[in-house]
Design goal:
alpha+beta, 9-stranded antiparallel β-sheet, 14 helices, disordered N terminus
Length: 403
């Protein structure tokens, strides 16, 4: 029998990370993104940028993948050719029929050779990567229906049963359970993600710098001539970033179907085994967020630093960001550097904010980092892996105790 519904638990991750000369995130004018906060300009990395780096690392660690694309028809067509041996023209038609059967709005794109066509959805479709093969298998099962009708415009309907396509599109996996999915055109396909990721920003004022660079033409120099083959300029910045993310455990286990429709934990003879997949997801998410870094300009900057400080807490009420600790920008130490001063400012704010919100609402708090011991963030873990393991244990103890 299902038992009492659990509280909503959140795992908060706070990170201070010093990043050298870099251009982690740029705008449409190729300029480093910034934000004005506390009356000064800071370097900013958007949540979308860091979330993509996080999601790619998470997929590798958890071993599950999701595909987000407008060209789901082409993806299906490729499988029809490679797995089922269809020729290119028939395969493109099969992909078009799958999209038409989904009910998702699309556009028809003629192929240059006029021997076929492709359809592209108006919005991005997000689904487990293995679902593409399942959709192709469904098209193969309905080959006779596909041959009888051509999808020439968005109003055309397919001979493939819509319900069968929707059943596949609605499926989720660890990636979708964690990061969510917005797909309004398919009933019950939308998923409220369990992860929330904030924009990262420097704890201090950060002035952008312009790098003027050239590329030498090797043959020109061999011929004794001077001058560069290419010249340009690019913006860079450097600084100590504050990063924050939180994972809603209640949302995660709901997305995974580990609680009932009325919000109660499903009864289990082995609660730890019941939540093992969720444990793996949380551990992979935390580890991936700690280690992730956007890859823009990586070949010319290699900004692959480790976090200076990671503070992890499990709360039973609501997430609590410490971004406001840096509304007053950090001033560099007398001998230079923002790292130590950022840690001090974070710790002081964290102690005050936690006390105001109620220390009893924090189930556990620990930290790990490269600096000296700090007071107010809980005990120190010897490694990031140990920190993550302790956080997972604390997060699931209440749920497993009630299952």
């Amino acid at each position: 029998m299902p038992i009492a519904q659990p509280h909503a638990y959140y795992v908060d991750v706070h990170i201070l990370q010093s990043v050298p000369v870099s251009a982690l995130n740029r705008d449409d004018l190729n300029a480093v993104k910034t934000v004005d906060y506390g009356g000064v300009r800071r370097t900013r990395v958007s949540s979308q940028s860091w979330k993509r780096a996080l999601r790619e690392a998470f997929q590798q660690e958890i071993g599950q993948f999701a595909t987000r694309t407008r060209r789901i028809g082409k993806a299906v067509a490729d499988v029809l050719q490679e797995k089922h041996g269809w020729d290119g023209k028939d395969a493109r038609r099969g992909g078009a029929h799958i999209v038409a059967a989904s009910g998702i709005k699309f556009e028809v794109v003629k192929e240059p050779d006029h021997e076929g066509y492709e359809v592209t959805t108006n919005g991005l479709v997000y689904l487990p990567s293995e679902s593409i093969e399942e959709l192709a298998d469904l098209a193969a099962e309905n080959r006779d229906k596909i041959k009888k009708k051509k999808i020439a415009k968005a109003s055309d309907t397919s001979g493939i049963p819509t319900g069968d396509v929707h059943e596949i599109i609605r499926r989720g996996n660890a990636v979708i359970h964690t990061f969510g999915r917005m797909l309004a055109e398919v009933d019950e396909a939308g998923v409220d993600g369990a992860a929330q990721v904030a924009h990262a920003f420097t704890t201090h004022r950060s002035d952008l710098q312009v790098d003027y660079f050239t590329a030498v033409d090797d043959l020109t120099s061999e011929w004794g001539e001077t001058g560069s083959g290419h010249l340009n300029e690019a913006e860079f910045s450097a600084g100590t970033f504050y990063r924050f993310a939180t994972l809603d455990l209640r949302a995660l286990v709901t997305n995974m179907g580990l609680i009932t429709d009325v919000g109660k934990v499903r009864a289990s003879e082995n609660p730890r085994e019941h939540f093992q997949d969720a444990r793996n997801i949380v551990g992979s998410f935390l580890s991936s967020f700690i280690r992730s870094l956007p890859q823009a300009k990586k070949n010319s900057t290699a900004p692959h630093t480790a976090p200076d400080l990671v503070h992890l807490s499990v709360r039973r009420d609501r997430p609590l960001s410490f971004a406001a600790a840096f509304e007053t920008p950090v001033r560099h130490a007398q001998g230079g550097g923002y790292g130590a001063a950022s840690r001090e400012q974070l710790v002081e704010y964290a102690k005050t904010a936690t006390a105001l919100m109620g220390s009893d609402r924090v189930l556990t708090a620990q930290w790990a980092g490269t600096g000296q011991d700090v007071e107010g963030l809980g005990p120190r873990a010897g490694s990031f892996d140990a920190l993550v393991e302790a956080g997972v244990e604390a997060a699931f103890a209440p749920l497993e105790g009630s299952a």
